[in-house]
Here is the input.
Amino acid sequence: MSLDWTTFLLQVFNFLVLVWLLRRLLFRPVLRLIAERKEATAKAWEEAERIRKEGEDLRSAYENRMALWEAEKEKARAKLFEEIQAERSRLQAENDRLIREERERARAAEARRLAALSQEAEARALRIASQFASRFLRDLATPDLEAKLIDRAVEEIERLPEAQLAEIRSSVAREGVERMEIRTAFALTEERRERLAKALQKACGKELACESFVDGSLVAGVRAIVGSWMVRANVKDELAFFAAKGGG
Here is the structure.
């Protein structure tokens, strides 16, 4: 079999033309399409990688947030427990204080009640004693008892300290006192009247007119009045003082 070079060359030419046409019309679009697909695939992978990283970041942030939330919850729980304990302690202390105060008030009220009862009993006893002493002393009231009371009053006047005497004299001078009044339950002897008047005048530091009166309500003893200064040494005033102490 002989080779036909013309046919061979034509076939080679046709093949080259076909290759050129395929490259021109088919390969380039296919290659471009493949390149575009590869580029799209690469972008898709990049997007997927970005989304994956974002997902991991979100998951990590979520886990961190949950860890922080758990820590905050634990901290809040501990703080709440401490506040509850503190409030419980405060309420317990307040309750104890109120109980103590109530007990103190109850004790104070009971003490006041007992003191009032004791004071009332003492006052009643003093009133009874005063009434008894009044009746007893009225029965014993005699000129001799009065003389003893007057002598005691004179002795007390003569023993007055200088400071008190100065105060009495200043009061007498300031009030312009010129007379004194002596009241007794029984008539005075001239000697005892003179002694009492001299003691009063010496205490006042000046001569004073003396007026004497008999006042049976005094029971026994003397009441001397020199301006605002008064000397009481009689049963009536002593009983009144005793009764006032009992009533106070």
Remarks:
- The mean pLDDT is 81.
- The longest helix spans residues 5-140.
